[in-house]
Backbone:
Protein backbone atom coordinates (compact mmCIF):
# COMPACT_ATOMS: atom_id res chain seq x y z
CA UNK A 1 0.00 0.00 0.00
CA UNK A 2 2.75 2.45 0.94
CA UNK A 3 4.39 2.16 -2.48
CA UNK A 4 1.19 2.43 -4.54
CA UNK A 5 0.84 5.61 -6.65
CA UNK A 6 -1.50 8.05 -4.98
CA UNK A 7 -3.79 8.21 -8.02
CA UNK A 8 -4.25 4.43 -8.21
CA UNK A 9 -5.47 3.08 -4.89
CA UNK A 10 -8.51 1.38 -3.46
CA UNK A 11 -10.64 3.24 -0.96
CA UNK A 12 -12.81 6.33 -0.63
CA UNK A 13 -12.31 10.08 -0.69
CA UNK A 14 -14.63 12.95 0.07
CA UNK A 15 -14.86 15.48 -2.78
CA UNK A 16 -17.25 18.40 -3.16
CA UNK A 17 -19.70 16.97 -0.67
CA UNK A 18 -19.74 13.35 -1.88
CA UNK A 19 -17.95 10.16 -0.91
CA UNK A 20 -16.41 8.82 -4.12
CA UNK A 21 -14.18 5.89 -5.07
CA UNK A 22 -10.53 6.93 -4.77
CA UNK A 23 -9.72 6.69 -8.48
CA UNK A 24 -12.64 8.93 -9.48
CA UNK A 25 -11.40 11.97 -7.54
CA UNK A 26 -9.71 14.03 -10.25
CA UNK A 27 -9.27 17.66 -11.25
CA UNK A 28 -9.02 19.12 -14.76
CA UNK A 29 -5.60 19.99 -16.18
CA UNK A 30 -6.68 23.64 -16.43
CA UNK A 31 -7.54 23.86 -12.76
CA UNK A 32 -6.43 27.32 -11.64
CA UNK A 33 -4.64 26.03 -8.54
CA UNK A 34 -2.40 23.80 -10.68
CA UNK A 35 -1.18 26.82 -12.63
CA UNK A 36 -1.16 29.55 -9.97
CA UNK A 37 -0.82 27.77 -6.62
CA UNK A 38 -4.25 28.78 -5.32
CA UNK A 39 -4.77 25.83 -2.97
CA UNK A 40 -4.73 25.53 0.82
CA UNK A 41 -4.44 22.28 2.73
CA UNK A 42 -3.89 20.57 6.05
CA UNK A 43 -1.95 17.53 7.18
CA UNK A 44 -3.13 15.73 10.29
CA UNK A 45 -2.72 12.32 11.87
CA UNK A 46 -5.21 9.89 13.34
CA UNK A 47 -4.14 7.76 16.30
CA UNK A 48 -6.33 4.92 17.55
CA UNK A 49 -9.17 6.17 15.35
CA UNK A 50 -9.08 9.80 16.51
CA UNK A 51 -7.61 12.66 14.47
CA UNK A 52 -5.35 14.70 16.73
CA UNK A 53 -6.52 18.31 17.13
CA UNK A 54 -8.85 18.02 14.15
CA UNK A 55 -10.78 21.19 14.99
CA UNK A 56 -7.60 23.28 15.18
CA UNK A 57 -6.48 21.98 11.81
CA UNK A 58 -9.84 22.75 10.22
CA UNK A 59 -9.88 26.24 11.72
CA UNK A 60 -6.47 26.87 10.15
CA UNK A 61 -7.69 25.51 6.81
CA UNK A 62 -10.53 28.04 6.78
CA UNK A 63 -8.21 30.85 7.86
CA UNK A 64 -5.76 29.96 5.06
CA UNK A 65 -8.59 30.14 2.51
CA UNK A 66 -9.65 33.51 3.90
CA UNK A 67 -6.11 34.84 3.54
CA UNK A 68 -6.05 33.72 -0.11
CA UNK A 69 -9.34 35.50 -0.68
CA UNK A 70 -11.94 32.79 -1.06
CA UNK A 71 -14.63 31.12 1.00
CA UNK A 72 -14.89 27.39 1.52
CA UNK A 73 -18.44 26.32 0.50
CA UNK A 74 -18.78 23.97 3.46
CA UNK A 75 -18.91 24.45 7.21
CA UNK A 76 -16.11 23.46 9.54
CA UNK A 77 -18.38 20.76 10.92
CA UNK A 78 -18.84 19.42 7.37
CA UNK A 79 -15.07 19.05 7.00
CA UNK A 80 -14.59 17.55 10.46
CA UNK A 81 -17.38 15.02 9.96
CA UNK A 82 -16.08 14.03 6.53
CA UNK A 83 -12.59 13.43 7.95
CA UNK A 84 -14.02 11.16 10.65
CA UNK A 85 -16.31 9.31 8.26
CA UNK A 86 -13.47 8.65 5.82
CA UNK A 87 -11.49 6.89 8.54
CA UNK A 88 -14.44 4.54 9.04
CA UNK A 89 -15.17 4.02 5.32
CA UNK A 90 -11.52 3.20 4.65
CA UNK A 91 -11.31 1.04 7.80
CA UNK A 92 -8.30 2.97 9.10
CA UNK A 93 -7.30 3.54 12.72
CA UNK A 94 -3.82 5.06 12.47
CA UNK A 95 -3.66 7.22 9.37
CA UNK A 96 -2.75 10.49 7.74
CA UNK A 97 -5.56 12.86 6.69
CA UNK A 98 -5.20 15.51 3.98
CA UNK A 99 -7.99 18.05 3.38
CA UNK A 100 -7.36 20.39 0.45
CA UNK A 101 -9.31 23.29 -1.04
CA UNK A 102 -8.60 24.87 -4.42
CA UNK A 103 -9.78 27.20 -7.16
CA UNK A 104 -11.32 25.41 -10.16
CA UNK A 105 -11.14 25.86 -13.92
CA UNK A 106 -13.81 28.39 -14.95
CA UNK A 107 -11.26 31.18 -15.50
CA UNK A 108 -7.66 30.79 -16.69
CA UNK A 109 -5.31 33.65 -15.91
CA UNK A 110 -4.17 35.43 -12.80
CA UNK A 111 -7.72 36.70 -12.19
CA UNK A 112 -10.02 33.97 -10.90
CA UNK A 113 -13.00 35.58 -9.16
CA UNK A 114 -15.55 33.34 -10.90
CA UNK A 115 -13.82 30.04 -10.25
CA UNK A 116 -15.66 27.39 -8.27
CA UNK A 117 -14.03 26.54 -4.94
CA UNK A 118 -13.54 22.79 -4.66
CA UNK A 119 -12.73 20.73 -1.59
CA UNK A 120 -11.51 17.18 -1.10
CA UNK A 121 -10.23 14.98 1.71
CA UNK A 122 -8.12 11.83 1.52
CA UNK A 123 -6.94 9.50 4.28
CA UNK A 124 -4.35 6.77 4.01
CA UNK A 125 -1.91 4.68 5.98
CA UNK A 126 1.32 6.60 6.35
CA UNK A 127 3.95 5.57 8.89
CA UNK A 128 6.43 7.95 10.44
CA UNK A 129 7.60 10.67 8.01
CA UNK A 130 11.15 9.55 8.75
CA UNK A 131 12.23 5.98 9.39
CA UNK A 132 12.38 4.80 13.04
CA UNK A 133 16.11 4.23 12.66
CA UNK A 134 16.68 7.79 11.43
CA UNK A 135 14.54 9.23 14.23
CA UNK A 136 16.50 7.44 16.95
CA UNK A 137 19.88 8.36 15.50
CA UNK A 138 18.84 11.91 14.67
CA UNK A 139 18.34 13.33 11.19
CA UNK A 140 21.02 15.01 9.16
CA UNK A 141 19.97 18.37 7.68
CA UNK A 142 21.59 20.37 4.93
CA UNK A 143 21.25 24.17 4.93
CA UNK A 144 19.11 25.38 2.05
CA UNK A 145 20.11 28.22 -0.25
CA UNK A 146 16.42 29.22 -0.40
CA UNK A 147 14.92 31.44 2.27
CA UNK A 148 11.45 31.76 3.73
CA UNK A 149 9.85 34.92 2.30
CA UNK A 150 8.98 38.08 4.20
CA UNK A 151 5.34 38.42 5.33
CA UNK A 152 4.83 41.40 3.01
CA UNK A 153 5.89 39.34 -0.03
CA UNK A 154 3.84 36.15 0.47
CA UNK A 155 0.88 34.93 2.58
CA UNK A 156 3.18 33.35 5.16
CA UNK A 157 0.36 32.77 7.70
CA UNK A 158 -1.48 30.49 5.25
CA UNK A 159 -0.76 26.82 4.69
CA UNK A 160 -0.85 27.37 0.94
CA UNK A 161 0.51 25.14 -1.81
CA UNK A 162 2.58 27.80 -3.56
CA UNK A 163 4.72 28.38 -0.47
CA UNK A 164 6.00 24.80 -0.64
CA UNK A 165 7.73 25.09 -4.01
CA UNK A 166 11.02 26.19 -2.44
CA UNK A 167 10.58 23.53 0.24
CA UNK A 168 10.45 20.78 -2.37
CA UNK A 169 13.48 22.25 -4.14
CA UNK A 170 15.38 22.47 -0.85
CA UNK A 171 14.55 18.92 0.20
CA UNK A 172 15.45 17.50 -3.20
CA UNK A 173 18.82 19.28 -3.10
CA UNK A 174 19.47 17.99 0.42
CA UNK A 175 18.55 14.41 -0.45
CA UNK A 176 20.85 14.54 -3.48
CA UNK A 177 23.70 15.21 -1.03
CA UNK A 178 22.70 12.35 1.27
CA UNK A 179 20.85 14.41 3.89
CA UNK A 180 17.35 13.70 5.20
CA UNK A 181 16.04 17.25 4.92
CA UNK A 182 17.09 20.89 4.87
CA UNK A 183 17.03 23.80 7.30
CA UNK A 184 15.78 27.06 5.83
CA UNK A 185 16.71 30.55 6.97
CA UNK A 186 14.27 33.43 6.65
CA UNK A 187 14.55 36.58 4.55
CA UNK A 188 16.67 38.21 7.30
CA UNK A 189 19.12 35.32 7.48
CA UNK A 190 17.71 34.02 10.77
CA UNK A 191 16.98 30.34 11.47
CA UNK A 192 13.39 29.62 10.37
CA UNK A 193 12.29 25.99 9.93
CA UNK A 194 12.86 22.79 7.99
CA UNK A 195 11.03 22.16 4.71
CA UNK A 196 7.89 20.88 6.43
CA UNK A 197 8.47 21.17 10.17
CA UNK A 198 9.31 23.66 12.90
CA UNK A 199 12.59 23.47 14.78
CA UNK A 200 13.65 23.57 18.45
CA UNK A 201 17.05 23.73 20.16
CA UNK A 202 18.18 22.83 23.68
CA UNK A 203 20.73 24.89 25.59
CA UNK A 204 21.49 24.77 29.32
CA UNK A 205 18.20 23.08 30.16
CA UNK A 206 16.12 25.58 28.18
CA UNK A 207 14.21 25.19 24.95
CA UNK A 208 14.82 27.76 22.20
CA UNK A 209 12.75 28.07 19.04
CA UNK A 210 12.49 30.71 16.29
CA UNK A 211 9.65 33.19 16.60
CA UNK A 212 7.12 32.28 13.84
CA UNK A 213 6.71 35.72 12.29
CA UNK A 214 7.22 34.64 8.66
CA UNK A 215 6.33 30.93 8.73
CA UNK A 216 3.57 28.79 10.24
CA UNK A 217 3.20 28.57 14.00
CA UNK A 218 2.64 24.84 13.76
CA UNK A 219 -0.05 23.04 15.76
CA UNK A 220 2.51 20.42 16.79
CA UNK A 221 4.91 23.23 17.68
CA UNK A 222 2.38 24.75 20.06
CA UNK A 223 1.60 21.33 21.51
CA UNK A 224 5.28 20.65 22.27
CA UNK A 225 5.65 24.08 23.90
CA UNK A 226 2.73 23.19 26.17
CA UNK A 227 4.28 19.81 26.99
CA UNK A 228 7.60 21.47 27.84
CA UNK A 229 5.95 24.01 30.12
CA UNK A 230 4.13 21.21 31.97
CA UNK A 231 7.58 19.81 32.77
CA UNK A 232 8.72 23.24 33.97
CA UNK A 233 11.06 23.60 31.00
CA UNK A 234 11.64 27.23 30.09
CA UNK A 235 10.69 27.95 26.45
CA UNK A 236 12.29 30.93 24.72
CA UNK A 237 10.75 32.08 21.41
CA UNK A 238 13.17 34.45 19.75
CA UNK A 239 15.27 35.33 16.73
CA UNK A 240 18.04 32.74 16.33
CA UNK A 241 21.09 33.46 14.18
CA UNK A 242 22.83 30.61 12.32
CA UNK A 243 26.12 30.85 14.24
CA UNK A 244 24.25 30.25 17.50
CA UNK A 245 23.74 26.64 16.45
CA UNK A 246 27.36 25.97 17.46
CA UNK A 247 26.33 26.45 21.10
CA UNK A 248 23.18 24.34 21.13
CA UNK A 249 23.36 20.85 22.62
CA UNK A 250 20.26 19.24 21.09
CA UNK A 251 17.85 19.96 18.24
CA UNK A 252 14.60 18.46 16.98
CA UNK A 253 11.80 19.01 14.49
CA UNK A 254 8.06 19.12 15.12
CA UNK A 255 5.12 18.69 12.76
CA UNK A 256 2.02 16.58 12.20
CA UNK A 257 3.95 14.44 9.72
CA UNK A 258 7.35 14.62 11.46
CA UNK A 259 5.84 14.41 14.98
CA UNK A 260 8.89 15.00 17.26
CA UNK A 261 12.06 13.99 15.43
CA UNK A 262 15.59 14.47 16.83
CA UNK A 263 18.42 15.95 14.80
CA UNK A 264 22.08 14.96 14.88
CA UNK A 265 23.47 17.38 12.32
CA UNK A 266 22.65 20.66 10.57
CA UNK A 267 25.32 21.58 8.04
CA UNK A 268 28.55 21.94 10.07
CA UNK A 269 26.78 21.77 13.45
CA UNK A 270 26.37 18.56 15.47
CA UNK A 271 23.86 17.70 18.20
CA UNK A 272 23.23 14.86 20.62
CA UNK A 273 19.93 13.03 20.87
CA UNK A 274 19.63 13.99 24.52
CA UNK A 275 17.24 13.42 27.39
CA UNK A 276 15.09 16.53 26.88
CA UNK A 277 14.51 15.66 23.24
CA UNK A 278 13.67 12.05 24.11
CA UNK A 279 11.36 13.15 26.93
CA UNK A 280 9.37 15.49 24.71
CA UNK A 281 9.27 12.89 21.95
CA UNK A 282 7.83 10.30 24.36
CA UNK A 283 5.46 12.85 25.92
CA UNK A 284 4.10 13.74 22.50
CA UNK A 285 3.69 10.09 21.51
CA UNK A 286 1.79 9.43 24.75
CA UNK A 287 -0.46 12.46 24.26
CA UNK A 288 -1.51 11.72 20.70
CA UNK A 289 -2.13 8.07 21.51
CA UNK A 290 -4.29 8.93 24.51
CA UNK A 291 -1.83 7.56 27.06
CA UNK A 292 -0.85 10.86 28.69
Residues:
Amino acid sequence: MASAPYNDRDGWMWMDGEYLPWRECNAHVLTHALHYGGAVFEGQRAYNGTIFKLKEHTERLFNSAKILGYEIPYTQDDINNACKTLLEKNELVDAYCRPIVWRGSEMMGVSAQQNTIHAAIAVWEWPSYFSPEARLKGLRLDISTWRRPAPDTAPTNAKASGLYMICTMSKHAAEAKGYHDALMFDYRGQVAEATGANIFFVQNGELHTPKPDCFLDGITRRTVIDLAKKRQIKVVERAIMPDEMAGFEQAFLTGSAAEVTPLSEIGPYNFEVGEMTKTLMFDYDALVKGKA
Q: What stands out?
A: The helical segments are 32-36, 54-68, 76-89, 132-137, 165-176, 219-230, 275-288. The CA atoms of residues 198 and 261 lie 10 Å apart. The two ends are 31 Å apart (CA to CA). The longest helix spans residues 54-68.
